[in-house]
């Protein structure tokens, strides 16, 4: 379980960052670009237009992603959540049995309501599904700034070996077998970060921002509890840690989307050019799943309603502030 040869599928900002991480850890790394044209540009310039100004490590081999890219010791899928199924299906035919396939997206698949590791298990049955998540911005990670994340797999020994393979002095992964807890933290925090951005864009103040983040975490925790996620995971890096980061920084695409909505921009205007806010796609799937399980998530529900146009921001704020008083919990 040395995992000396690792492939990253997806040459966006996060894919570039993770390829650099793996190279710094001393592993052989192949970066597979899903678009052959992008592969050519990155090969030539050694950087991605998704992460301008940050050079790809000289040790990273760049190719156009094909099924053959799966012939490595471990695979990281650094693609958006709603595209992960296609990426997993592409590599499935060439995977060796037991190969770790690590989802690096934070979300829930629309329509199926499946978590990322469930999508991998369905598309690539011979793989060992895993997930990497936590408070991390691609630019920080790519530059080698200190970052700590969580890596989860059902096999504890493999999860631990993967953290050894990826870890370095600047990138510190912690391992766990609580796969669903890590999945939930990443998916829910993206939706809640949109709400935090709305609070900021609306100019509601620091007190409101703190209240929103705290009550949002209560929703995330309730959702996780219903899926038997471990409390220490939900309060750890991939849960509370990622929520704090995403709810407080304009570097967060989800937070920035919320700011634009709070300032009165329509959704199509608020979408950042060329940048994907995963929470906009996860919100309906998160709320639908919560409703099916009878989990109360008023903030996430308000975000979903704002995004689909069934509620305006003023009404959403009024509804949240006029909910019945109750004990904290």
Q: Ends: how far apart?
A: 43 Å
Query: What low-confidence regions span 5 or more consecutive residues with pLDDT below 50?
Result: none
Q: Return Rg in Å.
A: 19 Å
Largest sheet: 8 strands, mixed
Gross geometry: globular
Number of strand segments: 8
Mean pLDDT: 95
What does this protein structure show overall?
The protein contains 15 helices and 8 strands. The chain has helices at 13-24, 36-45, 84-91, 116-123, 138-143, 156-166, 179-201, 206-226, 231-234, 237-246, 253-262, 267-270, 278-293, 298-307, 313-321; strands spanning 5-9, 28-33, 60-64, 74-77, 100-103, 128-133, 147-153, 171-176. The longest helix is centred in the middle third of the chain and has 23 residues, at 179-201. Helices cover 49% and strands 13% of the residues. β4, α3 and β5 form a beta-alpha-beta unit. The protein is globular, with a radius of gyration of 19 Å. Strands 3-2-1-4-5-6-7-8 form an 8-stranded mixed beta sheet, sandwiched between helices. α7 (179-201) crosses α14, α13 packs across α14 and α14 (298-307) packs antiparallel against α15 (313-321). With 329 residues, the chain is an alpha/beta fold.
Topology:
Layout: E1 5-9, H1 13-24, E2 28-33, H2 36-45, E3 60-64, E4 74-77, H3 84-91, E5 100-103, H4 116-123, E6 128-133, H5 138-143, E7 147-153, H6 156-166, E8 171-176, H7 179-201, H8 206-226, H9 231-234, H10 237-246, H11 253-262, H12 267-270, H13 278-293, H14 298-307, H15 313-321
Parallel strand pairs: 1-2, 1-4, 2-3, 4-5, 5-6, 7-8
Antiparallel strand pairs: 6-7
